[in-house]
């Protein structure tokens, strides 16, 4: 018997979940957005493309949307660099809607229509409790048997957009692997904050969506416990690039490395966001604000006015932060600034550290000290800061996550090799692919 840890899909990470309307009303070619999306390549192409025959497509256009998907995917699907997972209609409280979803899946999966060989699975929205997830799984099992497809070959992803589906994530470990279901086919757990807000009857003064950090944490936890992939919902202010980045940074600290993308521009941002930066950088924490220092000739320069530094004598300094003023010698100043700073390692830094630890482990050492140093410049005064961090096996394993993601991207997205080599350099890419 299978267990919940068995994975029926190849991707370990999904950075981008890009939805596209399947039929646009009032256009000469209602499939124009599908035609455009299927041509995306490189950093503009998502890890998972979701032709969306539910919320993104008007109900009256959905039958035409299925035909459009069949036409576009059968013709161009073989060349699309990511996975393709159409979103069909479903609803936990509507048998009629679930039946429509089955009919859409049946038509898309029919080998005579030519699309199924390019489809990796289906996205099921509006799921409810675990029994409802099993209904969707059973429908996919029926489709697989109808068309002589291998059971479990069609991945199933669900959109968590109700309290019922949020609670159902806690049942997955117990339910997956039972002989009575094929829930091992599950792939992604995707948050849908808009409908979740409606389901929860939440109200905010401005009418904007609550940030729902609890839902995102619970989805990431549910995915981790069941060997699945967690994806955040859409960030619909498509012009707010900085807000999108902040959302992804917050998600990544929860282990949610994927996010919904609504435009090719968001796809580019989301594809790059979880990758380690090209250059390491120092940050200064001032009055609950994080300020990235500018790098100039290998030095890290603070150009704000909330921190002031003055050399007052031989190895004597005055440091002013907000309303506080400190008289410090050189050693005390270095320690004070070290406490105020943090360092974001580059891909090169991570690979260097991992290689150094691997060499030490090969030589029989269980832990080694890694030094990190830099020159900070405040008001023209240079200050050397450095610290030692102990690396042991646990530190090494934690550092592996961004490298494992990088390797997963490199393996599954050959269309992005050129972008990665342009970003990092060919030599570093070659080292990153084999380290660990």
From TrEMBL:
What is the protein name stated in its UniProt record? HpcH/HpaI aldolase
Task: List the PANTHER family.
Answer: CITRATE LYASE SUBUNIT BETA, LYASE BETA SUBUNIT, PUTATIVE (AFU_ORTHOLOGUE AFUA_4G13030)-RELATED
Listed InterPro entries: MS (IPR053484), MSH_C (IPR059088), Pyrv/PenolPyrv_kinase-like_dom (IPR015813), Pyrv_kinase-like_dom_sf (IPR040442)
Ranges for the Malate synthase H C-terminal domain?
282-397
Annotated source species = Natronococcus amylolyticus DSM 10524
One Gene Ontology biological process: oxaloacetate metabolic process
Gene Ontology molecular function: catalytic activity; magnesium ion binding
Needed cofactors, names only, are: Mg(2+)
Coiled coil ranges (UniProt) are: none
Keywords tagged on the record:
Magnesium, Metal-binding
